[in-house]
Write a structure and sequence with these properties.
By secondary structure, this protein is of the alpha/beta class. The strands form 4 sheets. Strands 3-2-1-4-5-6-11 form a 7-stranded parallel beta sheet, sandwiched between helices. The protein has a two-stranded parallel sheet with strand order 7-10. Strands 8-13 form a two-stranded parallel sheet. α2 runs parallel beside α4 and α4 runs parallel beside α5. It binds uridine-5'-diphosphate-4-deoxy-4-fluoro-alpha-D-galactose. Uridine-5'-diphosphate-4-deoxy-4-fluoro-alpha-D-galactose binds next to α6 and β8.
Length: 329
């Protein structure tokens, strides 16, 4: 494997993947339409081709221009709340993009794909920690679109021999300050960047979405995983498929849960700032607890997260301090 196509490589997680691949000596081709990604996030000599993965002619040209050995597909819309009001947009973009990508792979004889899936495929979990064999019953169109693609991957493996690893992320956070990349969403909806924007003085408080959940302190518990650990899992998954590994779905989380209040408290400690917090109503569709079992990724891929919550928040804080307006400055 020499040349890897990264779809959505200008986005938050995708750009960290590109940086890791470059560091490991791969040739990297990024396709991204830059509708939510940032060209500035594509570092270190990766080749960027700007276009929509749903555009089959565009993808066909990219696959003809480069001799691609494997694909990592991050390109998707990922706002849970928006997906509820715009399900057609989410199915069209996410499922349509995957159909287009798999078509190009089939036509050009590329037989390995690592795909960004999500903990949202589980919906309201039956138990904690969540295992890959647990029931999948998404409670929003975003999660449903990702689960539909996992089905498409399974059938594409059976019919065309395209091997896949579907990686179900829990809560990605952190940054790679070595190469000056980090999280820059607009609008920002995720807890850690919002908390850090408060620390920077860009917001006057963080709203805690509900403090009456059945958890120790009443706030939602999530499993936060460093974006660099996530990127590393993708590389291991690609190498696993290259060695003839079986297709499958894998949880990517730390195995530890932290409440919203614990996140705010840790951010206060890391930043030394007050970070005012105000309890607000629950956000629709938030499960009370989501914690990954990461045993399968450990056993099959040899993956182990290396960075804990303080490092996640410290790296994110360093990025936000250096880029208070994201890539916009
Ligand atoms: N939260 C707040 N205040 C905020 C923002 C978030 O209290 O201002 C809370 C949320 O209610 C939730 C927790 O902080 O309990 C984490 O929220 P995020 O929005 O950061 O992340 P989610 O857990 O909602 O979403 C993540 C991914 C999604 C994925 C989902 C799977 O970002 O892409 O996990 O459940 F779909």
């Amino acid at each position: 494997m020499k040349t890897i196509l990264v779809a959505g490589g200008a986005g938050y997680i995708g750009s960290h993947m590109v940086a890791l691949l470059i560091e490991k000596g791969y040739d990297v081709v990024v396709v991204d339409d830059l509708c939510t990604g940032h060209w500035q996030a594509v570092k270190g000599g990766a080749k960027l081709r700007v276009g929509d993965v749903k555009d089959r002619g565009f993808l066909d040209r990219v696959f003809s221009e480069f001799s691609i050995d494997g694909v990592i597909n991050f390109a998707a819309f990922s706002l849970v709340g928006e997906s509820v009001t715009a399900p057609l947009k989410y199915y069209d973009n996410n499922v349509g993009g995957a159909v287009s990508m798999l078509t190009a792979m089939k036509n050009h004889g590329v037989d390995k794909i690592v795909f960004s899936s999500t903990a949202a495929t589980y919906g309201e979990p039956e138990k904690q920690p969540i295992e890959e064999t647990d029931r999948t019953d998404p409670t929003n169109p975003y999660g449903a679109s990702k689960l539909a693609i996992e089905g498409l991957l399974k059938w594409s493996d059976a019919a065309y021999g395209i091997k896949y690893a579907a990686l179900r992320y829990f809560n990605a956070a952190g940054a790679n300050t070595d190469v000056d990349i980090g999280e820059d969403h607009s609008p920002e909806t995720h807890l850690i960047p919002i908390v850090l924007q408060c620390a920077l003085g860009k917001r006057d408080h963080v709203g805690i979405y509900g403090d009456d959940y059945p958890t120790a302190d009443g706030t939602c518990v999530r499993d936060y995983i460093h974006v660099r650990d996530l990127a590393n899992a993708h590389l291991l998954a690609l190498e696993y498929l290259d060695k003839g590994g079986q297709s499958g779905s894998f949880n990517l989380g730390s195995g530890d849960g932290f409440s919203v209040k614990e996140i705010i408290e840790t951010a206060r400690k890391v930043t030394g700032k007050a970070i005012p917090a105000v309890t607000e109503p629950r956000r629709a569709g938030d499960p009370s607890i989501l914690i990954a079992s990461n045993h399968k990724a450990g056993e099959v891929l040899g993956w182990k997260p290396e960075r804990g919550l303080e490092e996640i928040i410290t790296d994110a804080w360093n990025w936000h301090q250096g880029h208070p307006n994201g890539y916009g400055q």
